[in-house]
Specification:
seven-stranded mixed β-sheet, 2 domains, 27% strand, FAD/NAD(P)-binding domain, five-stranded parallel β-sheet, 7 helices, single chain, 17 strands, alpha/beta
Length: 301
C-alpha cells in the first residue's frame, strides 16, 4: 500500500506533521524506531509548553499520539535505513519497504551521553538534559553541570538563579563558550568550576546521588554529592542515512530553512534534525506544521 506522506520519527515534529497532513486529507504513515514522543519523554515536568501550566513529557507525547491516531494516521515501529528517491519515494525499514509520494524526515537529535554504566536508567531520576524543563526540581539544592560550551553555560546561568550551588565539570582547562557567558558565571558566587575534570561514574541506585570524578592532569579521583546533574555536551543527529538526498551541515544536521524543504523534491526535514537556532518542543511543533503544509502543497501541484 502506498501513502501520500511518510513521516520518519514520532517526536513532536513528526506527530504534528501527521496531524496537519491528516486534516488536509492526506494518507499518512508515521515510522518510529524507539518510543513515541522523542526527547520530550525524558522531561518529567514541562512548564514552557503553551496551553499547559505544567505537563509531563510522557503525557504530552501521549496526547499528541492519540490526536494523530484519532485523525486516522497510521503508525508503525521500524528502524529506517534509507530512502530511495523517485516519483514515488521508497522508505527502507528493517521490517518492510514503504512507498510514499512525499517524505518528512523528523528523526530528531539525540542528546550526547557519556556512555557510563546505568546512565539510561538515571535519566529522569536525577540526571537531566534541560535546565528550563527540570531546573525547578532542584531549587535550593546542589546540582552539577557537565560541559563548558555555550549550551552548558546557558544552563549554568539559569540554574544558578534558583540552586544553592552549581558545580561545573569541564574536561578542558578552560570554558569554550562565549566570553560574555564565561564572565557572567564567574561572577556568580554559588558557581564552582572544576577544570580538567571528567565524570567517570554515577552514584546512587534508584536515583542519582553523586558523581565520581577524575582530574585529567593528576588522575586523582573524588566523589561529588549532588541532588541532580545536567549533561550539556551537545546533541548529535543521526542523519547520515539521508545525506544523499538531504545535504547536511558540518554538525550533521539537514540543511533546510523555515519552509522545511530539502533540495530534493518531495523530501522535507522538520524538528531537531534540521539546521536551526533553537531546539525546543514549541519549535519542533512549528516545523511539523510547516513541513506538512508544504508537503501537501507539493502533492497538490
Amino acid at each position: 500500500m502506498g501513502y501520500d506522506i511518510i513521516i520518519i520519527g514520532a517526536g513532536p515534529a513528526g506527530l504534528t506533521a501527521a496531524i496537519y497532513a491528516r486534516r488536509a486529507g492526506k494518507s499518512v504513515l508515521v515510522l518510529e524506531r524507539d518510543s513515541f514522543g522523542g526527547q520530550m519523554t525524558f522531561s518529567p515536568k514541562l512548564e514552557n509548553y503553551p496551553g499547559f501550566e505544567s505537563v509531563s513529557g510522557n503525557e504530552l507525547a501521549q496526547r499528541m499520539l492519540e490526536q494523530a491516531l484519532a485523525l486516522g494516521a497510521e503508525v508503525d515501529m521500524d528502524t529506517v535505513s534509507g530512502i530511495e528517491n523517485g516519483p514515488v519515494k521508497t522508505v527502507i525499514g528493517e521490517n518492510a519497504r514503504y512507498e510514499g509520494r512525499a517524505v518528512i524526515i523528523a528523526a530528531g537529535a539525540r542528546h550526547r551521553r557519556l556512555g557510563l554504566p546505568r546512565e539510561e536508567d538515571l535519566i529522569g531520576n536525577g540526571l537531566s538534559f534541560c535546565a528550563v524543563c527540570d531546573g525547578a526540581f532542584y531549587q535550593g539544592g546542589h546540582v552539577a553541570v557537565i560541559g563548558g560550551g555555550n549550551t552548558a553555560l546557558q544552563e549554568i546561568v539559569l540554574l544558578s538563579e534558583s540552586c544553592a550551588k552549581v558545580t561545573v565539570i569541564q574536561n578542558l582547562a578552560f570554558l569554550t563558550g562565549e566570553q560574555k557567558l564565561v564572565d557572567l558565571i564567574r561572577s556568580r558566587p554559588n558557581v564552582e568550576i572544576r577544570y580538567s575534570t571528567v565524570c567517570i561514574g554515577y552514584e546512587g541506585t534508584d536515583a542519582l546521588k553523586g558523581l565520581r570524578l577524575q582530574n585529567t592532569e593528576s588522575s586523582e579521583e573524588t566523589t561529588l554529592a549532588v541532588d541532580g546533574a545536567f549533561l550539556a555536551i551537545g546533541t548529535e543527529p543521526e542523519n547520515m542515512i539521508f545525506s544523499a538526498l538531504a545535504p547536511l551541515d558540518e554538525g550533521g544536521y539537514i540543511r533546510a530553512d523555515e519552509s522545511c524543504q530539502t533540495p530534493t523534491a518531495g523530501i522535507f526535514a522538520a524538528g531537531d534534525c534540521r539546521t536551526k537556532a533553537f531546539r525546543q518542543i514549541a519549535t519542533a511543533v512549528a516545523d511539523g506544521a510547516a513541513a506538512a503544509l508544504n508537503a501537501c502543497r507539493y502533492l497538490d501541484r
